[in-house]
Amino acid sequence: MKALYRDRRLYLLALPGILFFIIFKYVPMWGITISFQEFSPYVGFLDSPWVGLEHFKRFFNNPDFLIIFRNTLAINVLSLVLYFPLPIILSLMLNEVRNKAYKRTIQTIIYMPHFLSWVIIAGITFLLLSHSEGIVNKLLVSMGFNGIDFLTNPNYFWLLLTVQSIWKDAGWGTILFLAAMSNVDPQLYEAAKMDGAGKFRQMWHITLPGIRSVIIILLILRLGHIMDVGFEQVYLMMNGAVSEVADVFDTYVFRTGIKQGQFSYSTAIGLFKSVVGLVLVIVANKLSKRLGEDGVY
Fold this sequence. Notes:
Blueprint: H1 2-6, H2 8-26, H3 44-47, H4 54-61, H5 63-82, H6 85-95, H7 100-111, H8 118-129, H9 135-142, H10 154-169, H11 174-181, H12 186-194, H13 199-210, H14 212-223, H15 231-237, H16 243-246, H17 249-259, H18 263-290
Helix pairs in contact: 4-18, 5-10, 6-11, 14-18, 17-18
């Protein structure tokens, strides 16, 4: 209590954030219970009959389960492999820019797409890649090539989503890495120069080890969202031709939970996603600690 009174101003400063998490994160967890009920909004939580694990059994036995699990995992793994390293690479490149005005200009340009909504990005994608009216296909046809079905070919869909994510958020993702790089001791670079190390050697042996803890923490947190693709992006880009590879957990929950009113069933799916993310975070955190890192907790 003495420590609480001593730091009362700090707790008061943190109070809005604490209230936010309590009201919008912890209190809604009560809704998890409906995944074990045949919930009806007319009778409420307390009077809805309990059905145990029936909704989970139904979901796992559904032929759509393997399809949406494959699609969700494939999109996230592709994003993890192609997208996650790019902010690190961009940060390393920006960290070597010595002209401050030029550096700030580049940062502003690569940050801007983050503030665009997925609706705008989907519209830009259609303008660029549409088979009949898209700028890219018009250029290909003008050069004597055949047009490419970027938007309706299932083979391109996962990569298309990844490229969109890279264009939108890779620049924004550099903020944390650049902040971490600013804390690296400059004397280490001077000592490396004295030893004859070039820029690449300095980045490899000083900069990257200096931000390794940040990279590992962000990677662990990223694994926690391995079952989340992003409903808005997928929903906007989905069409009948690519539905087989575009249907993910988020769109399936929207279709069954919102459109069909199967609240308990869709909540069970959401709980499954959360459990998978939690397990991955715990496992990745333990592995990071075994490798000598601090981890998330």
